[in-house]
Batch of 2 targets.
Target 1
Amino acid sequence: MTTSQYSYTNDQRNKQETLGRFGFNFNSAGVHTARTIMLEDLNVLLSYVNNPDAVKKDYQKAITEDNCLGKRSGKTRSITYSHLFRLYGLDQEITIFRVMLYFWKRDPKARPLLALLCAFCRDSLLRQSFSFIHQISPETRVTRESLEEFMEKCEPERFSPATRMSLAQNLNSSWTKSGHLRGGTKKYRSKAIPSCGSVCYALFLGHLTGLKGQSVFKSEFCELLDSSFEDLLNFALEGSRRSWIVFKRIEDVMEVQFPGLINSLETKWLDEQN
């Protein structure tokens, strides 16, 4: 069962509600009709609000009042805040944002994939487009038109031609920022480059959806990392050595725990889900 299936299966409605508590968003709307994953803005914002106790209003103030992102007008600042909020939550009470921030500060190399993983949980259009990206072989050219065609099949007649073009351009740009595509005008499929932080975060997201043991290494979140099973295991071991997660393995029996990343209320939600 993949993350994207949660949006379409009636049997998953209760699970959607539970995942919504952690910050997942299953609304059909998405930021990508107007923006990308906004990696550069997110980088600047999280550097500016360098406070482990920051709350939602601190991020909003940084963007709309302090203008830390250098936007030209108040309206643009408000729109930028709205898009970043929809993509990432910008609230440490939101589980997936708080834990993304934990790895963000500890593994700078992981930041493009951390941003992608978090946005993937909150933007339905980005989730849909992964099926297109995932099936493409490395070094294969990826055109805007081919992605437009794919999204039209996913959402027949939902978007005008102009909006569909903008959507495809923004999605291609997001997948380029994450490392899944390379190039400027001409884009080609490339392999994303995971690191310890992005793998640990992907495992954490799989854990939130109820996966355990080996299955947590085979989630759609781990598929996003373009990494082999053995490489994922090695990164998990590294994360355990760094005390970011707890990973135990006896041959094919595996267990991944996140004792420092989940509070008592979130543990209760997980228990209710299981």
Target 2
Amino acid sequence: MRYEGTVYRPPSEANSLLIQATIGCPHNKCTFCQMYKGTRFRLRPVHEIKEDLAMARDYYGDGIYSIFFPDGNTIIMKTDQLEEIFLYAKELFPRLQRITVYGSARYINKKSLADLQRLKAAGLTRIHTGMESGDDVTLERINKGVTSTQIVEAGLKLKQAGLQTSEYYLVGIGGLERTREHALESARVLSQFSPDFIRLRTFVPVPNTPLYEDYHQGKFKLLSAHQALQEIRLLVEHLECENSMVLSDHVSNYWDVQGMIPADREDMLASIDHALQIDEKRFRPPEISRL
């Protein structure tokens, strides 16, 4: 397999075969992200991707059960190309159970429902999509390139196509100024399409990003540990999803908040309340992650 640059994957894809289908991110303008800065976005030729799949089969055998195709927003590839890649992967790996990609609402919405249904039939099972926030003010400030209406449209389309949706909520990305609006608007948006997974990530400023500079200039106020937990509590309290799993599966988070909405809501709120009783000094400083 041939890799270019740093390859990023969600923690839940730790046991997946990683095959780069795209290089970089087609948007690459989010003010908090430095993952693909300095990388020109491009699609890898289908024949190269298939060659890498064949190399993986020769190296690992045909027992692969999960494949994740990075980089950012692989869903942007033409439906015919993705279909060809997925079908070839299933041919090489007869035990394959899961194929996943990254895809933001902006690029998901470029696909028709029929396109997404074709991809599901070809083997696509889940899309990891970083909404970050459902608050339009916050989305504009972080230059996400998408609105809350578009996020809902994409979520409903994925659900109709039968594809699992793994949504990412970025705790604290609204700053102290909009922490309440960020949580409540995100709960409103998520409740409209009930994603299969709501994955919590806590914002930590990363050098060489515009939001990092705003933080150091005092223009952006980070949430303390307790404030971040209070924001999560507000989100969980107001989620009206049907069978959505909330997960805190990232090292940036202060506390393991996990459970189904609505079944485990009260247990999650009780767990957060317990964490809020712990001296804040025992948590990491907000500007330092444990990565």
